[in-house]
Write a structure and sequence with these properties.
By secondary structure, the chain is α/β, with parallel strands linked by helices. The chain contains nine helices and seven strands, in the order ββαααβββααβααβαα.
Length: 396
């Protein structure tokens, strides 16, 4: 045991000293471990105590919440009964209002339906008449081909001026008389300057009449046709026809276009579709001069179409006269609908006010319920938590 193991700082360390030092070190470590274990045990005991206290506090709060919830359920049941009663009252009043509104709407709908039905019948009649007139136009157009093929027979008929004038006048009168009522036109009508156009068509709404002239220079056209398609003779005949047309157009413009008494435009009637087509193809300058002079060159088909347009205008005037009656009924209907809308808006305001009142009642009942809960819990202590809770409830 006295054997020296090693030296430390000049001190000889024997086996006995080393044994004692190891025992001391072990004892110190053991004491340190015991101290740590004792501290941990104390911490666990404190934590367990704290958890037990928190569990007890949670149990108390749960019991208090259950009591508060029971009170709230009781108040809610009472408010539910009151709301059901109010809902029944509002439901009965709403049913009466809906029934009244439906009755008014049914009555107004019946009136509107009757007006629409009457308007539909009138429109059907007008469309039927228009279809009849369109059928007449279709038949007339179907005859154009046949008429264009009869140029040779037409030339034989128009051998002199009187025959030519009577033929053009007759075709124009037949077209006008077939398309308009007897009060819608006049033949050989005398104007204020003592001129007598072949025909005038009286326009609707008091507008000035439309003048139609049927004195087409067919003699010059016949010379042009006989001169052949080209050559000097053709040029001279074309120049003569152009001059005759210009003279006739100027005469129509000067005699028949009277400001305020006749329309600003007059018709120059050409009794043949083929002649009308040739004029527009080979004498465009004549057509343009006539347009500048406010004279329109028309063929039989164009005159028929113009008559149909005038007839449609007259029918439109009659329809507008009837439409005024319908418009009056519709305005009265709109007045009834406006009054109904105003009354419904007033009723909506009443419902909105009632809804706002119910919201105020619910707010007041909530305050009463919270105060009753506080009284039931006997929260009269002056602890900071109780003071804060009372201030929160007073703020709500």
């Amino acid at each position: 045991m006295d054997k020296v193991l090693f030296s430390l700082g000049g001190t000889a360390i024997t086996a006995e000293i080393a044994l004692y030092a190891g025992a001391a070190l072990f004892a110190a470590l053991l004491i340190a471990v015991l101290v740590v274990l004792i501290g941990a045990s104390r911490d666990r005991a404190a934590e367990a105590k704290r958890q037990a206290e928190e569990a007890e506090a949670a149990r108390r709060k749960t019991a208090e919440s259950e009591r508060t919830l029971a009170s709230l359920l009781q108040v809610q049941n009472e408010m539910t009964g009151r709301m059901q009663t109010m809902a029944e009252i509002f439901g009965s009043r709403t049913s009466d209002l809906a029934r009244l509104v439906n009755e008014r709407l049914d009555a107004q709908g019946q009136k509107v339906g009757q007006a629409i039905e009457a308007t539909g019948k009138k429109n059907e009649e007008s469309l039927g008449k228009l279809a009849e007139r369109l059928a007449v136009i279709d038949r007339a157009q179907a005859n154009i081909t046949t008429l264009s093929k009869d140029v040779v027979s037409l030339q034989s008929i128009l051998a002199n001026k009187q025959s030519r004038g009577a033929f053009g006048q007759g075709r124009m009168e037949a077209i006008v008389a077939d398309g308009l009522a007897s009060t819608g036109y006049a033949f050989q009508y005398t104007l204020s300057n003592n001129s007598r156009p072949d025909c005038v068509i009286f326009m609707p709404n008091g507008a000035p009449p439309l003048v139609i002239d049927a004195k087409f220079p067919l003699e010059s056209w016949q010379k042009l046709t006989a001169a052949g398609p080209s050559g000097e003779e053709h040029r001279i005949a074309a120049l003569g026809f152009r001059q005759d047309m210009q003279v006739h157009i100027r005469a129509i413009s000067e005699k028949y276009l009277i400001a305020g008494e006749t329309q600003d435009t007059a018709f120059l009637f050409v009794p043949s579709e083929s002649i009308f087509a040739d004029i527009h193809e080979h004498f465009e300058d004549v057509v343009q001069r006539a347009s500048r002079a406010r004279v329109v060159v028309v063929s039989p088909s164009l005159l028929m179409l113009s008559i149909q347009v005038v007839q449609a205008l007259l029918r439109d005037v009659r329809i507008r006269e009837e439409a005024h009656k319908i418009q009056k009924e519709v305005m009265e209907l709109l007045g009834d609908v406006g009054r109904l809308d105003e009354r419904v808006r007033k009723l909506q305001q009443h419902f909105t006010q009632a809804n706002n009142d119910i919201g105020d009642i619910l707010t007041s009942s909530g305050k009463v319920t919270r105060r009753a809960d506080r009284i039931a819990a006997m929260e009269f202590d002056d602890t900071p938590q109780a003071v804060v809770e009372r201030q929160r409830l007073a703020g709500e």
